[in-house]
Amino acid sequence: MFTLEDIDGVEIDRRAALYGPLADAVRELIDATIRTETDADVIRDVEATVRAATTRLRDRQIDGAYGVRFTPDGTGMPWGNAVVGLRNPIAPPLDIERDEDGRHHSRFTLGAAYEGPPGHVHGGVCALVLDHLLGMTASPGDKPNFTGTLTLRYRRATPLGPLHAEARIDRVEGVKTFVVGTLSDAEGVTVEAEGVFITPAWARD
Ligand SMILES: CCCCCCCCCCCCCCCC(=O)SCCNC(=O)CCNC(=O)[C@H](O)C(C)(C)COP(=O)(O)OP(=O)(O)OC[C@H]1O[C@@H](n2cnc3c(N)ncnc32)[C@H](O)[C@@H]1OP(=O)(O)O
């Protein structure tokens, strides 16, 4: 589940500089694919180009998913992750900051690829973002805490565009960490979240 990679910071930076721009380019491609109104022959031509590019990338690839890799000094590389993955074009991706008091927060923009109701963020995407942010907040050290229960209250529709999410630990009871958080636009909170995150048996002391 967690894979040790014996590499240093220079190698991490080299890989990030190689794969990050590729994922960014594919994110742009996803947005353009949804929104283009260009001519049919251009679309067919682009489809062939994209299929050819995919074939080249598949020339050498790993079996299965990317996994969560980490280095000997504990640097995590969750690069395939659906929310923060540097190599995952599906991920917005979120850049999550941690305050000294343990609060986690992120400013990010969700565009056309995340639409549910017209012009608004899909409810499942709101849950995706909040699940990850609350999960990170619940897992401050080297121990993962997994979502046991996540409860959301959708107060109003979340518009596509710039957004802000934040979370904090409410309390810890044994292996259970209770976390609360919100998703907001410029007008205020759109979604409230409460989660129970649990240390899996294999990670308990
Ligand atoms: C190495 C370097 C890298 C380190 C890296 C660290 C950072 C890492 C960041 C991770 C960031 C993740 C951010 C994304 C978060 C997800 O997306 S996680 C994926 C979604 N969640 C899952 O797949 C979890 C699937 N479920 C499970 O694995 C297990 O059922 C659970 C939730 C771990 C519970 O384990 P369990 O052995 O069944 O628990 P059990 O011992 O029976 O019960 C323990 C307590 O929890 C309660 N409980 C059990 N299940 C639930 C539930 N579903 N709801 C509420 N309470 C429950 C029990 O009642 C019990 O309570 P008490 O009796 O103690 O009061």
From TrEMBL:
Span of domain Thioesterase: 119-191
State the annotated membrane topology for this chain: Peripheral membrane protein
Q: Which InterPro entries match?
A: HotDog_dom_sf, THEM4/THEM5_acyl-CoA_thioest, Thioestr_dom
User: Which Pfam families does the record associate with it?
Assistant: 4HBT
Gene Ontology molecular function, alphabetical? hydrolase activity
Q: What is its main location?
A: membrane
- The UniProt record lists the keyword Lipoprotein: no
This protein's superkingdom? Bacteria
**Top EC class for this record:** hydrolase
Give the catalysed reaction(s), semicolon-separated: hexadecanoyl-CoA + H2O = hexadecanoate + CoA + H(+); tetradecanoyl-CoA + H2O = tetradecanoate + CoA + H(+); dodecanoyl-CoA + H2O = dodecanoate + CoA + H(+); decanoyl-CoA + H2O = decanoate + CoA + H(+)
- Under Enzyme Commission nomenclature, its number is 3.1.2.2
The answer to whether keyword Iron-sulfur applies is no
Subcellular location field: Cell projection, Ruffle membrane; Cytoplasm; Membrane
Record key words, sorted = Apoptosis, Cell membrane, Cell projection, Cytoplasm, Fatty acid metabolism, Hydrolase, Lipid metabolism, Membrane, Transit peptide
What protein family is recorded? Answer: Belongs to the THEM4/THEM5 thioesterase family.
What's the protein name? Answer: Acyl-coenzyme A thioesterase THEM4
Q: Which organism is it from?
A: Rhodococcus gannanensis
